[in-house]
Fold these 2 entries.
Entry 1:
Amino acid sequence: MIPALPYAHALVAKQDLPIPAWLFAWAASIVLVVSFFALSAAWRKPRFEEERWRPSAAWLTTVLRSPPIQVLCGGLAVFLLGVAIYAGIHGTEAPDRNFAITFFFVTVWIGFAFVSALVGNVFPAFNPWRAIARVAGGAHRLLAGRPPRHLAYPERLGRWPAAAGLLGFVWLEVVYGSSGGVAVGLEPHAAGVAACVYTAYTLAMMALFGCETWCARGEVFSVYFGMFSQLAPFGVEDGRIGRRRPLAAATHWVAGASGSTAVVIASIATTSFDGAADGAYKGALESVERWFADAGVGPLATIRIADTIFMAGTVAGVAAVYLLGVKGMRSVPGAPPFRQLARGFAHSLIPIALAYLVAHYFSLFVYQEQAQFTYLLSDPLGTSTTDLFGTAEHGIDFNALSPNAIWYVQVAALLVGHVFGLTLAHDKALVYWRDYRRASRSQYWMLAVMVAFTCFGLYLLSVGAS
Amino acid sequence: MLGAVAIPLAHLGHFLWIFYVIPVLIVVAGIIRSTRAEKKREREEESKKRQ
C-alpha cells in the first residue's frame, strides 16, 4: 500500500486520479519497453524510407491551389496580421483581453502545429509574409519585365536561422513576458511591436534570398509548422496534393538541411521549459532570482536573467540526452560516424515535439479558442467599446474539460508520440545496420532516451497540475 | 524520545521526482547489463573461432 504523499505547497490537487500520477510514468515506460521488443521481433525491414506518395483526385489540387483560393487565404492572413498588430499596439494592455496575444501565441502557434500534423502543410497558403512577398515579386515582374534577382542562400546556414528564431519567439513569450500571471503574460504592445519587427526582417530576408528559399530555411513559422506537417498523411509533390504513408516524410526532412536537428531539439526544450517554469523549476528559479536580487539586479531583470539561464539549460539538457542516445548507438559495430547518426535520427524526435506540444497546450488551446472566437473577435482591442459579432460578453467555459480528461489526453499524447518516435528510430536503424539484430541493439539507447523524455514530460505535467 | 522526532512528511512532495527517475534507471541498468552480456558473448564467439 503506497500512501498518498502530502504536497507542502499545493492548495488543492486539480486531478482526482485513481492511481498516483507517477504510476502513469511507470506504465508508460513498460509500454515503451514492450513496444521496443515488439519492433525488434516483428519490424525487420525499413518501411519509412519511401513515402509511397499517391496523387489525390486532380480536382482537389485544382481547387485548393487555384489563384482565387490562394488570394483569399493570403489576403485573410495579411488582414488578420494587420488586425493583430493594430490591436497589440492600440488595444488594451490586459493580455487576456487583447486579440493579439491569443491570436499569435495560441491560435497561430499551437493551432497551425496541430492542423499541420493532421492534414499537412497548410501554412504556406496562410503565410502573410509569403503573400506580401509574392505580390511584391509579381509587381516587380510586371514593372521590370523580369523576376527579382536574389542572392544564393548559404547552404551551410541550413535551418539554423529558424532554430534561432524559434528560441527567440519562445523567449519573447515565456521569458520576456513572464510577469503577467496569465496564460501568456507578454504585453500586447510588445507583441505588436515584435510582429512589426519580424515582418520587416522576414520581408528583407525574402527580398535577399527569395520567398520560397527563406520559407524553407529561415522563416520560423514556415519551418516549425513544416516540421510537424512531415508527420501528416497528406503532402504536395510537383505541385499536386496526394496521400502518403503517415510519418514517412519526416525521415528525409532532417537530412535535407543542417540545423534541422536544432529546430527539433529547440521545439521540445522550449515547450518543456514553458511547462517547468511554473512547476518543476519554480524552487530552483526562485533561488537563482534571489541570488541575482542580492547582487543588486533589478526585479524584472532578475526574473528574465534567471528564466533565460534555465531556458538555455533546458535546451542543453534535451540536446545532451539525445546526443547521449546517439553516443550509445556508436558503440554498436558497423555504426556510421557520430554526426551522421545525430542528424539521421533527429526526425524520431518530431513526434515527441508534437506530443509535448499537445500535452502542454491542449487545454490552453481549448480554453483560449473559446475566447478567440467569441469576445476577442467581437472586441479585438479589448476596450469594451465594440461588439462586432454580438459575442463580446461571452466567456470561457472552464468546465469544457475535466482535469482528469486533460490528464488522460496528456498521458496518451506523450505515450503515442514516444511510441511513434521509437518506431521511426527503429526503422532508421534498419537502414544503417542491415542486420536487424544489430539494428535493435543500437536502439537500446534510443529506448532510454524515449523513456527519459516520457518520464520527464509526465513529471513536468504532474508538478504543473499540483 | 522517539515520540519527539517529527518526520517531515509535508515535504515528501519535493522528492516525488525520484519516482519518475526510477523507470529510467531500470531501463539504463537493463541496457548496460545486456550490452555487457552481448559483448562478452561476441568475445567468446571470436575466441572460439580463433581456436
Entry 2:
Amino acid sequence: MLLQYANVLIFMALAAIVATAMLAISRMLQPRNPNPVKAQPYECGELPFGHSWVQFNIRFYVIALIFIIFDVEVAMLYPWGVIFRKLGTIAFVEAFVFIVILLAGLAYLWVEGDLEWVREYRTAEEEKRAREEEREAA
Amino acid sequence: MLDNVQSVKFFLPELILTGAILVLIVYHVVTGKKKSLFAGYLTVVSVGAAMLIAGGIGSGGARDLFFGMVRIDEFSTFFKVIFSLATIFAAFMSIASSEVNGRRQTEYYVFLLSVTLGMYLLASATDLVMVYLSLELVSIPSYLLAGYLKRADDSVEGAVKYVVYGATASGIMIYGFSLLYGLTGTTSVAEIGRIVASGVSPLTLTVAFILVGVGFGYKIAAVPFHMWSPDVYEGAPTPVTAFLSVGPKAAGFAVLIRFFYAVFAQRVEGGQWALFEGVDWVTVFAVLSAVTMTVGNLVAIVQRNVKRLLAYSSIAHAGYMLMGFVLLNVEGLRAILFYLVVYLFMNTGAFLVVVLIANQIGSEDIEDYSGMGIRSPFLSVCMGIFLFALTGIPPFSGFIGKVYLFAGVIHSGLYWLAVIGVLNSVVSLYYYARILKVMFLEKPKSEEELPVGIYAKAFLAVLAFPTLLLGIYWEPIIRAAEASARLLGG
C-alpha cells in the first residue's frame, strides 16, 4: 500500500545526498582567505550600513498591503487580456466590475490617508479633547 | 452545472450583500468618519432582502453554480436564514448598544456584512478553494470586529489572539486540503468524495482528516481549539460577541457537515452514511464532543464576568451539537439544524440583556447584577427565559433541541455520550441559575429603576417569543431541518 510513496522517499534521499555532497566538495576544494570586505553581507552591490536588526516603520506594512491588492489585479488582468477577444462582452463586464470594486477600495484608502507618507498623529491628550468636543457637539 | 452567466440570477442574495458593502464603503468615503444610523439600517434591509430572495431561490431545488464552485440547495438555504437572522439581530443590538457608537460606525457594518457574505458562501461552497476563501472571508472581518474597540486593551488582546489562532488553524487546514488534492487530483468536494470512495491510502486520508478537522474545529470553537474564544468573546463589543457565538459558529457547522459527509463518509440507503475502512473520525469527534461540553461547562462555573461565562457556555453548546454530527444519519443532522435555530434566539437574547444592562450600569460582572429583579423586572424575566432555555428545561425551546440531540444519540446506541450530555446539562443549570439567583434573590446595590426603551423591550420580546414558542410548537422547523438534512449531497 505504502509502496507508491517509495519514489518520494528515493527523491528525498537523493536530494539530501546531492546537497550534502555539493557543500562537502566545495568545502574541500575552496581556498580560504577571509578579509573584512569579503566578509560583508551581499546587498546587491550597495554598501551596507548599520545593523540589520532595526525596527522598520509599521507603515511599510500598510503600503505592502495596498501594493498586494493592485499586484493581484495586474496578475488577474494579464490572462484576461490574452483571451479577451475570444470571450467578448461578458469578459469585459466581468473585468469592469472587478476594477470598479478595486477602485472603491482605492478611494477608501485615499480618503483614510493611507497613501500619505507623512501622517498627522494625535497624542492621547489631543484625542481625549477631540472626543469631548465631539460629545458636546452631539 | 451552470456557467458564470447562467449562475448570476441564482446568486442574487450574495450580489445584494456585495452591493451593500460597496455602497457603505462609498458612503464612508463621502461622509467621513461620522456616526451614522444609515449604515445600520442599510445592513438590516440588505440582509433581510438577501434572506427572502435566498429562501425563494433555495426552494427551487439544488443547483451547482459557477462551474461547481458553490451549490444552492435546501441545506445551504436553511443556514442562510440562520446567518441572516443572526446578522439582523446583531445590527439591531449594535444600534441599541452604547459600546458601538464610536465614530467609525460605517466600517463596523461593512465588516458585519462581509462576515455575512462569507458565511453565505461558506454554507454553499463545494470546492476546496471556495471553502478556503469563504472561511477567510468569515475570519478576517471577524478579527476586525473583535478588535473594534481599539482603545480597550482587552478588545485588542482578544483580536490579536484571534488572528494568531486563526492564521495557524487555517494554515493547518489548507495543508490538509493540499493532501486531499494530492490524493485525488481535483478540488471539487463531490469529486474528491467519489475518488475517496473508490479507495485511497487510509494513512494519508487520516492525516488529511486530522488537519482539516483542526481548521473546522477552530471555527466552531471545539476543545482543544477553543482557547481563543473566551478572550475574544470577553474583549469584543457585546453585539459582536453575540454575533460571533451564533453566526460564524453555525457557518463552521455548515461546512463541517457538508465537507465531512461528502469526503470522509459514503451515502447509503435510508438517510444513513457509512464510514470508510481505517478512518474512524466518528469516534474522534464523539470524544471531542464529550470533552468540549465538559470543559466548557466546568470552566463556566468559576466565571465572574457574564460575557466570559456565556463564552464558555457557547463552547459547551458546540459540544452538544457535535453529538448530532457523529451519528452519520439524518436524525443527527436535523437535530443540529434545529438546535442552531433554537440557539440563535436564546443565545442572542441572553447577550441582548447583557448589552441593555451594561448600557445602564457599565458593568458585566455577575455581582453587579444584584437586585435586577426589582430594578427591572422585564429584563430579568427575559433573562430567566433565555437562561433556562440554554439549560434545556421544559417548556422552553432549548429542551426540545436537546431532546432531539439526545434521542438521536440513544437511537444510535452511543449511551456513554448521552450520559455525559445529561450530566453536563445538570452542571450548566448551576451556573445559569447562579446569575438568576443574584438577579432575583440578592439585595440590590441601589434601588434605582433601570430605564429600558420601548424599542429595546420590543426587540427582547421578538427574541423571547420564539424561545417560548419553539418549546411548544416546533413542528415546522424540525420538518424544514429534516428536509434540508435529507437532501444533503443527494
